[in-house]
Design a protein that fits this description.
With 398 residues, this protein is an alpha+beta fold. Helix content is 24%, strand content 26%. The longest helix is centred in the middle third of the chain and has 26 residues. The N and C termini lie far apart (56 Å).
């Protein structure tokens, strides 16, 4: 499968190519096909294409991948023989979670695959991919899978693999594109279908883009995700319709799906969200930054405060982390609250409780934010004014 630095193309017999790659599948000696190289590595498999359903292995995990799989299954049920695709699902193995790591928690996509009666496979270790390779798939589809699919498995398929990514690549390449699009106040974003690169994430050739998806100034990760799920599932279905209709032999793939050579977006990295990104530094952060961080990275945000604690019957002060929920710009207002305000000369971090429900207004370096509720880390009850030694949140421990 050709990539950006594709250099060599040759035609070999299917049998010779099978020997070259040690392909476990039997090929007919009379068939020939194109074999493409990325540097010195062959990226098209040598498995002969037969007149049968397109065998697809779908790698995924979360809500984004569930929306894409649901769209394919729903359309397959409606189209019947006109959409001859044999869908299998691969997920990572369950991870231990919960109190004392006593629970085994699997990814949500696994339950959806079972509900649809789709073959479900584990794909975590090298041996898992060898087992999948023996099944002989035509195409690998990765959607929020979270793991680099081995190049040896990509090579074993007829057409290689594709990835559905929730941004306009190469902008926001990486594991958290939705969050960083909101945090950087992008006006729009979208969905990209790219080829699976054998060595790196988000370095494949761009095959298709969705229409732009607008980002509103009130969007949170959840609200933007829901619209991107629609865009992604629609785009992936369009891809499969073209695949079934236009691609009948390996070289047809690159006729039906021509790589997008024009780079309309500049590269940026969207790394995994570090817990420190949710920290509020009142002496440095503006109200806009705090509000954007809450919408992009989700709650709770956190900060420090000196709180009143009781220990062995003695009342003492402790510096504790405080978790902040329901954070928003104060000037947006909330009809459910009286519009009490702070004096103009209060320092950043100054807290004014609004009502008995625990909501408060907090001063930043520029502007104010409303916090619906707060909790001292490790405690269940909402923070009250009497819990604070001083009515101020602190940026640091000092």
């Amino acid at each position: 499968m050709p990539f950006a630095s594709l250099h060599t193309k040759c035609t070999v017999s299917a049998v010779d190519a099978c020997r070259l790659l040690r392909c476990p599948h039997t090929a007919r000696a009379s068939l020939t096909r194109n074999v493409y190289y990325y540097d010195r590595q062959c990226l098209f498999s040598t498995r002969a294409i037969q007149e049968k359903a397109v065998r697809v292995i779908f790698f995924g995990s979360d809500q984004f991948s569930m929306a894409c799989l649901d769209e394919l299954v729903t359309y397959k049920k409606q189209a019947k023989d006109a959409f001859d695709v044999d869908l299998h699902v691969a997920v990572r193995k369950p991870k231990r979670a919960g109190r004392n790591l006593k629970q085994l928690r699997e990814v949500p996509l696994a339950a959806l695959a079972r509900d649809y009666g789709l073959p479900l496979h584990a794909a975590e270790e090298t041996e898992d991919f060898k087992n999948l390779q023996a099944l002989g798939f035509d195409l690998a589809v990765a959607v929020s899978y979270g793991k680099l699919i081995p190049s040896s498995f990509i090579q074993s398929t007829t057409w290689g693999g594709i990835n559905v990514h929730p941004s306009f690549l190469p902008r926001h390449s990486g594991p958290a594109p939705i969050q960083w699009a909101i945090y950087h106040n992008d006006p729009t974003t979208g969905v990209t279908i790219q080829t699976l690169h054998p060595y790196s994430f988000d370095k494949g050739q761009i095959l298709m883009n969705s229409d732009p998806v607008r980002i509103y100034d009130t969007d949170s990760y959840e609200t933007l995700l829901s619209r991107l799920c629609v865009a992604a599932s629609t785009l992936l279905l369009d891809f499969f319709k073209d695949l079934v209709e236009k691609v009948h032999k390996p070289e047809d793939f690159w006729t039906a799906f021509k790589p997008v050579l024009e780079r309309r977006y500049t590269y940026s990295h969207a790394p995994k969200i570090d817990p420190d990104m949710r920290r509020v530094r009142w002496q440095a952060d503006t109200a806009e930054r705090v509000d954007t961080a809450f919408r992009a990275f989700g709650g709770p945000l956190w900060t420090f405060a000196r709180v009143v604690s009781q220990r062995k019957g003695q009342v003492e002060e402790q510096l504790r982390r405080v978790l902040l929920y329901g954070v928003s710009m104060h000037d947006r207002g909330d009809p459910g609250h009286t519009d009490q305000d702070l004096e103009e000369d209060v320092p950043p971090g100054f807290v004014k409780f609004e009502n008995n429900d625990g909501s408060m207004i907090v001063q930043t370096v520029r502007g104010k934010v409303r916090v619906e509720s707060a909790k001292i880390e490790g405690r269940q009850k909402k923070l009250k004014a009497t819990d604070l030694v001083y009515p101020i949140f602190m940026s640091d421990k000092d």
